[in-house]
C-alpha cells in the first residue's frame, strides 16, 4: 500500500502542505488588509462627494438635477453604510484559532494551544471574515458607480437647462 510521505524532507507531501498552509494564511490575511484599505479610500471618496452634493443643494437647480443629486446622495449613503460594515471588526472568541479566543486563555492554555498546528483553522476563520468583506465592498463599489452616473446625469440636466 502506498502512503504519502510524512517527513519534512524537501519535496515531500508534508513540506507541500506546510508551504501551502503558510501561503494560504498569508494570502487571506493580506486580502483582509487590502479590503480594509479599499474600503477606507472609498469612505473618503463617498464623504467628499456627499459633502459636495449637499453643499450645492441650496442652489437654484432644475428639478431633474435635484432628483438625480438626491438619488446620488442616497446611493452614496447606502454605499457608506456597506463600507462601514466592511471595516467593522469581526471578533469571534469560540473558534480557538484567533486572538479573541486567546484573550480568554491564561498563559498555560495559550502554550497548550500553540503546541498544535492550527493554521488550517485560522485560514477557515479568516476566510469567513474576508468573504463578507469582499461582498460588501463589491456592493458598495457598484452603488458608488451608480451615484457617479446619477451625478453625470444631474450635471447634464443643468447644462441642458442652461442652454434652453
From TrEMBL:
Q: Which organism is it from?
A: Streptomyces violaceusniger (strain Tu 4113)
Keywords, A to Z? Antiviral defense, Cell membrane, Membrane, Nucleotide-binding, Plasmid, Transmembrane, Transmembrane helix
One Pfam family hit: PycTM
Can you name this protein?
Mobile element transfer protein SpdB
Q: Which GO terms describe its molecular function?
A: nucleotide binding
Give all residue intervals belonging to the Pycsar effector protein domain: 21-159
Q: Where does the UniProt annotation locate this protein? A: Cell membrane
Record's Gene Ontology CC terms?
plasma membrane
Q: Could you read off the lineage of the organism from its UniProt record?
A: Bacteria, Bacillati, Actinomycetota, Actinomycetes, Kitasatosporales
Superkingdom in the source lineage:
Bacteria
